[in-house]
Amino acid sequence: MRKILQKLLKKPVTWLAIKLSSSPRKKQVFESLSSLLGTLKDARPGHPLIVPFEVDKGKFIILSDQHKGAKDLADDFRNTETNYLDTLQYYLDSNFTFINLGDCEELWESKPSVVVAKNRKTLEMEARFLTAGRYFRIYGNHDLEWSFDPQRILHLKPVFGPKLTVSQGLLLHCTYKEKKYSIFLAHGHQGDQRSDGNWFSKIFVAWIWTPIQRFLQIQLDRVSDSFELVDKHNILMYEWSATQKDLLFISGHTHKPVFASLDHIDRLTRQLEIARSQGDHVLIRSLEKEILNRQEEYAGKKVVKTMAKPTYFNSGCCCYSDGDLTGIEIENGFIRLVKWKSDEGKSTRIVLEESPLFYLFDLLESE
Prior knowledge:
Elements: H1 2-20, H2 26-42, E1 51-52, E2 59-63, H3 81-93, E3 97-100, H4 112-118, H5 120-131, E4 135-138, H6 149-160, E5 166-167, E6 169-176, E7 179-186, H7 202-216, H8 227-242, E8 247-251, E9 258-259, E10 262-263, H9 264-278, H10 281-295, E11 312-314, E12 325-331, E13 334-343, E14 346-356, H11 357-366
Helix pairs in contact: 3-5, 9-10
């Protein structure tokens, strides 16, 4: 019966979902992000308080988009799990605060009970940060169900305990040169018509559309699957961040790392142009190979788009097919884009991009 219904309903339901949704629109993105930022600043109920830190002492690791699944062939996290556990152990031992930036679990494809049962070991490792008082969890569009108390209480709190909260965003506050600066964190689906804003609203998506999608095995609404949407989405995130005062914005969602408003493919492309101008054939081959390897996973593009203000960052994801993962570190006055490379069962931390926070703050001040 299920196969018959899937055959009959999959095509019309897919058509309807695409018809009623759309790529992100600037007006909705700006309004949604501004509204969330205002909510966090006001410290309204249901949201964590602003988290203060000292510029030269704060230590945060921001990871997103694990998409932990059911350990089946559709589970994007399977290849990354061992590397992810090693990564978390490093940051736990190094006294980092872990900010889990959404789409932590893949609840579009699998039921919460199945995902939690299959990923118990990984969730228990995350829970160790909460026990240490160093854990914040933010929900995205693929784990939207965690925004509801019944689902959290039933599935997550048996692992994490009663102190667990899941919010839509977070604000980090610091002071530099006697002036306050903010680092705003959200998953990044805000304002996206495919997952936020129209009648595919929060309740509909979590309680009606998600079960239908699971049953019919429809895979939609993953912005990272579209080269065009990834770039459009990241550009809109940047454009909004560039309108804010004294603020850096960090999101996930697209699976494509961005550092200081320039994505990693752009930086590799620039390095390749320099290597070609210098005739460095060894470096040319190395960069060409790296770009080729990452274009599909970063939804790479051929045209370099440079964004002017260093206000936007994207953590990338923790579900690359080769087992690698990327994230954003904030440590002792620096912000970094890091990659944890998985090579024959060994995890290696690689700094891809790095900047002193004070340098970015000075650039914001000079605008």
